[in-house]
Amino acid sequence: MVSELGRILSPEQVLSGPGAQRAYDCDAYSVDRSKPMCIVLPESTEQVAAVVRWCAANLVPFTGRGAGTGLSGGALPALGGVVVSTKRMNQIVEIDIPNRCLKAQAGIANKRLSDAVKDQGLHFAPDPSSQSVSTLGGNIAENAGGPHTLKYGVTAQHILGVTMVDPEGEILELGGKVPGGPGFDFFSLIVGSEGTVGLVTEAWVKLTPLPTAVQTALIAFPTIRDATETVAEIIASGVIPAALEMMDRGILVALEAAFGLKYPEGTAALLLVECDSNLSAEPAGELVQREIETVAAICQAHNAIDISIAQDEAERQKLWHARKKGVGAMGRLAPSIVTHDGVIPRSKLPEMLDFVYEVAERHGVKVANLFHAGDGNLHPCFYFDDRDPKQVHAVIEAGEEIIRKCVSLGGSVTGEHGVGVEKQDLLPLMFTPDDLRLQAMAKQIFNQGNLCNPCKILPTEKSCVEHKKRWRGVAW
Amino acid sequence: MGIHVSQLTDLTTQCIRCGFCLESCPTFVLTGEETESPRGRIYLVRSAEEGQVQWQDAKPHLDKCLGCLACTTACPSGVKYGEILELARSKVGKSLPKKALLTGMTRPNLLRIQLKLGRLFPSKRIPALLSRLLSGQTPEVDKPQLPAKKSFPSLDESKLPPIRGEVFMLEGCAMRVLYPHVNEITRRMLRRVGFQVREIGQGCCGALHAHNGYLDEAKAMRSRLYSALSGDIPIIVNSAGCGSWLKDGDRSGWVFDASEFLLQEGLAEILAREGTGGLTRVTYHDACHLSHGQGIRSAPRELLKAIPGLELVELEESDMCCGSAGIYNIAQPKMARELLERKWKNIESTGATIVATGNPGCHAWIAQAAREHGQRVEVLHTLEVLERSFLRPRSTS
Fold this sequence. Notes:
The structure holds two protein chains of two kinds. By secondary structure, chain A is an alpha+beta fold. In chain A, about 35% of the residues lie in helices and about 20% in strands. Among the domains of chain A are: about 90-210, Uridine Diphospho-n-acetylenolpyruvylglucosamine Reductase, domain 3 (2-Layer Sandwich), CATH 3.30.465.10; about 215-330, Alpha-Beta Plaits, CATH 3.30.70.2190. In chain A, about 55% of the residues are buried. Chain B has 22 helices and eight strands. In chain B, helix 7 (about 95-105) packs across helix 8 (about 110-120).
């Protein structure tokens, strides 16, 4: 296999051997691990197509991978086979400022897109916390969100078109620089398909004007309830913040250890609220000022003990830095973490958070929360020692219980991290068997041989059940 | 299966695989390979330590690591990557040619003899045989040359502040042989802010050995050096790699990079008053062991900016390794060359006529690029730029 793929590409574009197989056996979701046979690093759409054609002809499963920062095992090579890395496809192909869009290869880090057009006052809005490393292709596969999703929408709203290689190895162009077009909207099936219906190699993305005015506030609350109740009320007031994030005590401890950040005595939870506008400068400033004042008043009514508003861009960046690196900082607390991802209606946040703490205690696992409160998108973060199988299983069970609760409160099993291998078994909580069959049929249209990222999203097909025993929860 | 614990395991479990280090890692940026990323290397080290893979499977990837520590700047979890790398390298088995090379480079007399002998060989590069032994690749590094002797006018005592203290100055192994004038300039700068160097015979600090996994030897060398430099006075270091290693030791509180010490002692004010820049455009390359290793980024810039008339332009990817990385450009010529060309492209696009840096390794390596690309840009130690501003007569004002 290695030598044949080496002939199709070049030998140095194929990695194999125990070291490489180990390094690519999981992404940032490290509970499940499965080794690939080899890894390829193509440099163009044509090379991806050649690899996929070879896989299809030889019935070898293949799995796409960007930076490997996914949190549900989307890049896990569940049946082994070939990992197709996009990391040598990291160029911006074309920038079209008048039409506010650009075309880039799938392996580029998201933040590099924004950096490239910063001087023109534009940016690529979807900003998962991992944006400095996670790839455009990964954002598309997972339909990623981020703190600014609340106002600007998730990735799907920012992708105009893609070039992709289908599971037979054919190159397709879907959508394009100009929105619209006749026929069925296959394109919206692609974004969020977690790499199961083909490999996206390039995309046209929409560029959004940078805000002309921004105010960012960090508010400390004495209880979790005070903070969660504030969230629903802010949205109900008519203000739509650009971001509305919450962090609890566990995160504060990690942040203090990591960055020496100090928070007021007696803080149980923090809200990070950002209001912005891209109206022309003068009214934008006034509007944003009014919004942040409204937010501050609501916080005060809910017993806020401290409200600090960033005075300049440096202070603002510091507040965000803590939020975006918060999960990473958890490494200070334990050898391993699993970040869960569920959605509930905002109004249920107080009830839900109580439940999260209760579940964690019952299973004897430690939990911290930092999440997109404005969207009701929870991220309970379990931290544990992955060398202890008991803890690993407690984490998996506690996570499933939390997701069940999300669904029972009228929410969803995932907000932005995808289903991957982590949550397949939970999909029946949301869909009837008929729904699931219909979705499987849609997947089949593209992925007939089930070679393209097998055993993902839909509740495990028969062929995957046996394999799954091999990697489910193996952790260390 | 029980829980194994070792120092190395404990250090590696700090990593939670968030991947925030990836784009900061030069070898990952160039190759796109997980195995050439900090996260991948940490994972392989942990796997090897716990018997999931062989050390031999991890070794090629540990060899390709520059040890630039850019990942530690990016890491939110506080993973001590430098320690992991040093410990892991000490486990993967030693290479005889590498050891010989380190010995040759860290004994100034031996290094001088080698440089003289080197002149007998016609090639511009280091001997191909040595390169092949170390890397299996053709050499990229030019043979270092013994510098022409530089002399400086003596300082005008009447204009100097009174002496208010003594310091040690680390003479360094490479610095002493290849850039002796930088040591002389360091003495002059210290004197300008009122400090005198207590001259003392001294050996190698062990930094190069440590960064290549010869930890025991390195620690012994550091201890010997510390005992030579005994006494509670500051130790001033003008070479980033040495400073970073010395700051990890017992006397860390006394070790200062020359730039941070001089800034703290008021050199910027003196420069603003007495220096001249001759309206040059200068850019600054962050040596890895200064920026990522010691967190020193602003001090050298502040000093340069203090020179009247000097325009400091920021270098794109200024804190990305140039590929020199100790003996990396000898041990991994191909990767080192790619990084050097990338660095050079960034330097050229600033339009600067001088690039300043604070480490002899970067200095020599980037200077080679300057020669190869037509010598349009001069490569200088940061302190050399400062010295020039004192030597140039003040024409205006």
